[in-house]
Amino acid sequence: MPSVPLSFYSNRLRIDADLHLPDDNGSGAPYPVVVPASGYQGLKVIHPERFARALAPRGYAVLAFDYRGFGLSEGERGRLVPQDWVEDVRAAVDRVSAHELLDADRIALLGWGLGGGVVVAEAADDPRVGAVVSCNAVADGYRSTRNMHDETSWSTLLRRIDADRAVRATAGRSEITSPWDIVRLDLDDRTDGYVGEELYRAPGFGSGVTLESADYLLRFRPFEVVHRIAPRPLLIVHGERNELHKPEEAADLFERAGEPKRLELLPEHGHTEWMFDDHTTFKSVVDLIDEFLGQAFGPTKVE
To answer: Cα 1 to chain center, whole Å?
Structure first.
């Protein structure tokens, strides 16, 4: 899979990115392009590159990038704000729209976890996006975060967020906290195990985030704008036993979305324990995405 650096700028911040291309010496160009948006604490080397490895051999160009403040991208460390990430995805669309090897009329967004809500929010106001895939997404940041917590941890988090507002207004800085004070992985055993065994291998994963980030997350509501994607096609994929972002997130997006839309629940599967290149479920999801994009854009040229 040939890959070339393709950084871009979002709100004057340099975003580190790589363009992954089919290995066909350019015979399939201009390629349909997929922009994968990572999830909470995500980095391009995790799921975006995983999707690139699966989709590039099928004829798609894939732009994998680190959000601002993460990886090698510029930006405030610890600031994990989905509303900012929407702007980063929009800037990624700006970049691929102007690339000579890419087809500006065949741009798809593919979001994972929190990124699944980010791509919904971006596509809602960006007619250049021709199709959207939202996997294990967050539809309502408040509801999804509340569902991760028990009564004690939730009330503690809300008190800390409220106190931090006064600190920010007075001192101009937000308290850094563990990302798992906000997202309670320990309440989902399968996801917690996968993160500990797999994701911490990525440099920088698990770094602290600001309480301001949690404040913004609770105000992130992709369900309010998902209807604006229509008449462009939307595919929603969600683990039926996802205890991190519960299936009601997918159901809410699907109910509010316009046609054409498709909802696929993954029986007996949770949030992320099946995200391995050679896992049968991951392969079946890639088949589903390929079929969906083929219907949206037409078949790719694969030798």
So the answer is: 22
